[in-house]
Structures are given as C-alpha cells and as structure tokens.
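Lab notebook, bench 4. The sequencing result for the construct came back, and we need a structural model before the next group meeting so we can plan mutations. Quick request posted to the team channel:

Model the 3D structure of this chain.
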Amino acid sequence: MRRVYLITGASSDIGMAFIREAAEKDASALFYAHYRTMNETLAELQRGSGGRIRLIQADLAEEGGIFRVIDAVGEPPTHILHLPAGKIRYVRLRQTDAEILKQEMQVQVYSLLEIYKAFFPQMAKEKYGKAVAVVSSCTCGKPPKFLASYTTVKYALLGLIKSAAAEYAGRGIQINAISPDMVRTKFLSSIDERVIENTANSRPDGKILTPRQVVAAIEFLFSDDNPMFGENLCLS
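Done. Here's the predicted structure in token form:
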C-alpha cells in the first residue's frame, strides 16, 4: 500500500525533519504538508521532491482554516501526523489570557478533531491507518509552573487522542501520541536560556532532545511493527 501522509504543522522543525527522513526512505510516498508560514527549508524540500510534497497553506487559528487543509487533500491519507502549536509562554495563572487558550484549542485540538472526522471513516473501511500527534511531556507527570494554557491544551489534545483510539479500537487504525521533553526547535525562542540549560542539566547526557530523536519515535509509531494503540509515548 502506498503511504500517503497528511502532516499539519509541516513547517515546524520536527515536521521538516520527518518529511526529509520519510521521503528518503520511501520513494513512492506522497506528502500533503500543511503550513501557516513558509520557510526556505520547506520550499527546498518541495522543489526537490519531484511533486511528491504538496504544500497546503492555511492558518488553523482562523475559522474554516482546517477545512481548507482537508479539502486540499486529494488522496485519502494512510498516515496522519499532527504537529501545530504556538510558542510557549510562561505566564502566572492570574494573568492567563483566555483568548490565547481558545486560539490554541482551535489550532491544536479542534483542528485534529475535524481531521479525525474527515479521514477515519475511510481508514476504518480499509482497516488500515496510523495517526500520531505530538503532545508534551507535561502530560507525563507533574506539569511545570506558569503554563496553565499550554498544559490545559495538551491534556485536551491527549484526551481527544485517547477517546478516538478507544472508539476505533479493533478497526485497523493505530492512534497514538508522543510526548517529548524539551526539544531544540525554534519554539524555544521565547524561553529564558536559563530554563533550557536547567532542563538540559537534568538529563543524563546534559542535552535537550533534538528533532531527529523525536522523528525516530514517530517513525516507530508509524511502523507496522508498532503494537501500541491509544498510548502516550513519553520521550525524555
């Protein structure tokens, strides 16, 4: 079966690293790559793909943005990778902005719900499909302070994933989450470097995760050797 990937948030560091790896390993794979803001790395990947990477521009924070993505997918996906997220903001609970929380729910949770609704029925009919969403290590234990909006959205995202996995159990669709610890990506630009250093120092190797390490875990969850259903793979 030809692999057809739908990747939301493909312009993220993890998204581009995944596309690069997957395209090199499978010359027949097709990629529908959603992005909000174009960058040169994603453009280069598309130019060198021989038409196998089809770009879809949409702002998932806008009403109807996710439906532009869904409508642009010309071939039903066999694999769904959900990555979109805003920058991390450390804010005390009393200063938490409800509008930002609503926006991130729209970008991360409501958009994934619509993707599930659009494509899972066909996957169930074919009795084959794989879906992975990147969540956060805040769902793997005690969450950090000053991240009420971030933590709330990530738990809602994980709840959706687990609910979908329970409903589609036994119908051939593997639905899982991966929750990495801090990853060296552009999303760290708004975080104090001391926080990054402290996180790195708490790890045995003294380093935070790289996108390539997260990609390796995603590849495992997408592999036919993966036995997991409805799990949250915590990566540190």
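The mean pLDDT is 92.
Will bring this to the meeting.
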